[in-house]
Design goal:
With 492 residues, the protein is an alpha+beta fold. Helix content is 51%, strand content 15%. The chain has 3 domains: 9-164, 2-Layer Sandwich (Beta-Lactamase), CATH 3.30.450; 246-310, Helix Hairpins (Orthogonal Bundle); 316-421 and 431-478 and 485-491, Heat Shock Protein 90 (2-Layer Sandwich). It has helices spanning 9-61, 66-76, 100-103, 109-118, 160-210, 225-273, 282-311, 323-333, 335-340, 360-376, 436-446, and strands at residues 80-84, 90-93, 124-126, 137-143, 152-158, 318-322, 344-349, 355-359, 383-391, 394-401, 451-455, 461-468, 488-491. It has a 6-stranded mixed sheet. A hairpin with a 5-residue loop joins strand 1 (80-84) and strand 2. Helix 5 runs parallel beside helix 6 (225-273) and helix 8 (323-333) packs across helix 10. It is rod-shaped, with a radius of gyration of 52 Å.
């Protein structure tokens, strides 16, 4: 198995940055050195060509001291000047003894033919060494006179100084590369740390979140991607903290709501069992136990409904129906309670029929919960109003009571699970589970609509929710009998 030498992003970033800079400097240095070396060789070849032309001029003059002049050109410029005859006989002119090893080497027929083919009256610089020696050379081939048949002229120069200069350039390149590598390491460490450090802090924060500690926050600086991710994680932590608090509160509330009726039922049943409650009083206390049982069943059903809605397991059955007719049918189920509480129900419809596109069963549950709350928190003899009106593509449904109302500081929380307004001051018969309005809000939101509440202490409460108005092509007529007409008030 291959071992990973760079286990962290920080080490990999540093390595890649330093490697990139080093390779770049080496490539640039090598290219520059090669260009400089080629330029120096080219310039030196041009000089050798001028010396060759001077030697040709001396040979062409035909003077008696031609050999003296050729020796002078060779000695004055530290060159090896060779005059090759048509029979491959070589006459060498040089001053420094180091040229003797070159001059003493015989010229093969192949080398002679190659030189003859390359030579011309103008001279040609060729990086080709037809002889082997102890140091590098550069030769220029030229005809001694006008044509190769009249002999050849070879001028050879020493490339050792140029090679030494090239070696110095390479040495400086390596030194610069080493300095650059150190500098790039420092810069890479700084930049990599600046890039990676936010992610290290994020990792630490996420580990805290995994342990249930949502108080840790990530320091955010700037507006780059890391800062945006840090802000998102901070927002997520805040939401998780809220969810955790909600979960704990939810568990505590459920435990309290279930423990209270169970404790009451257990106490009454034990009292009946041990004879504390006489048999003639059994019907009264059995009724209390049944009421507590119904309360528990209602609570459990509400919990199940809320869980199904929030998990999305309930499939909404959208259809077109008349919301006014649904309100009429719903009100009929509350007739007995309205009569018992001596309440009047005011029904106001802006139009006789109002078609909406929604899940009729779910909206029926919304109406039942809102009307139940309105009756529960309204004193005897007061009225409750239900109204509908439409505006463009939206239908507004309002349920209003004239009850005790909700204080302003409690209004933002009425849709929270198990939230109860002034628990200590609310009469026991009016106590609910605190889940009804939460279910209402989830149902309305699952339809893509909204619900609002307006209330003031002592002035009653008004809930208004919206529904999608059905298009004219989808509307259906209501063939049933209407018990409540438009803008009519019915006393029950």
């Amino acid at each position: 198995m291959r071992k990973n030498r760079f286990r962290t992003i920080f080490s990999r970033m540093m390595f890649m940055q330093c490697l990139t800079v080093t390779v770049a400097v080496l490539l640039i240095g090598a290219v520059l050195a090669a260009v400089v070396y080629a330029g120096m060789v080219g310039e030196y070849g041009t000089q050798l060509n001028r010396y060759a032309q001077n030697a040709r001029s001396v040979i062409a003059s035909g003077k008696a001291d031609t050999e003296t002049h050729l020796r002078y050109i060779a000695a004055d410029n530290d060159l090896l000047v060779e005059r090759i005859g048509t029979h491959n006989d070589v006459t060498a002119y040089f001053a420094d003894a180091r040229w003797e090893s070159y001059a003493s080497q015989p010229l093969s027929d192949t080398a002679y033919e190659r030189i003859a083919d390359s030579a011309n009256p103008l001279g040609e610089t060729i990086r080709h060494y037809y002889k082997r020696g102890d140091f590098p050379v550069l030769s220029v081939y030229s005809t001694a006179l006008d044509t190769p048949d009249e002999g050849l002229l070879v001028v050879t120069g020493d490339l050792s100084p140029i090679r030494e200069a090239f070696g110095n350039i390479l040495l400086w390149t390596v030194l610069i590369c080493a300095v650059t590598l150190i500098g790039s390491g420092v810069v890479s460490y700084y930049t990599s740390y600046r890039v990676i450090n936010p992610f290290i802090e994020m990792n630490h924060a996420v580990q805290c979140y995994s342990r249930g500690d949502f108080s840790t926050r990530i320091p955010v600086e700037g507006k780059d991607e890391a800062a945006q991710l840090g802000e998102s994680l901070n927002e997520m932590a805040e939401q998780l903290r809220g969810l955790e608090e909600t979960r704990r509160s939810f568990v505590a509330n459920v435990s309290h709501e279930l423990r209270s009726p169970l404790t009451s039922m257990k106490g009454f049943l034990e009292a009946m069992q041990d004879g504390t409650i006489p048999p003639e009083n059994y019907p009264e206390y059995i009724g209390i136990v049944l009421n507590e049982t119904r309360r528990m069943v209602t609570l459990v059903n509400d919990l199940l409904d809320l869980a199904r809605i929030e998990s999305g397991t309930i499939q909404l059955n959208f259809e077109v129906f008349d919301i006014n007719e649904l309100i009429r049918r719903t009100l009929l189920t509350f007739e007995a309670r309205l009569v018992e509480n001596e309440m009047e129900m005011e029904v106001r419809f802006a139009q006789e029929q109002c078609a909406v596109y929604a899940d009729q069963a779910q909206i029926g549950q919304v109406l039942r919960n809102l009307i139940d709350n309105a009756i529960k928190y309204s004193p005897k003899g007061h009225s409750i109003a239900v109204s509908t009106y439409s505006m463009r593509k939206t239908v507004y449904v309002t349920v209003r009571d004239n009850g005790i109302g909700i204080p302003q500081e409690d209004v933002p929380h009425v849709f929270d699970r198990f939230y109860k307004v002034e628990k200590a001051h609310t009469p026991a018969p009016q106590m609910g589970s605190g889940l009804g309005l939460s279910i209402v809000k989830r149902i309305i939101e699952s339809h893509g609509q909204s619900i609002t509440v307006r209330s003031a202490r002592g002035r009653g409460t008004q809930f208004t929710f919206t529904l999608e108005r059905a298009s004219a092509s989808k509307r259906v007529s209501d063939g049933g009998k209407r018990n409540v007409s438009q803008n009519n008030t019915v006393s029950l």
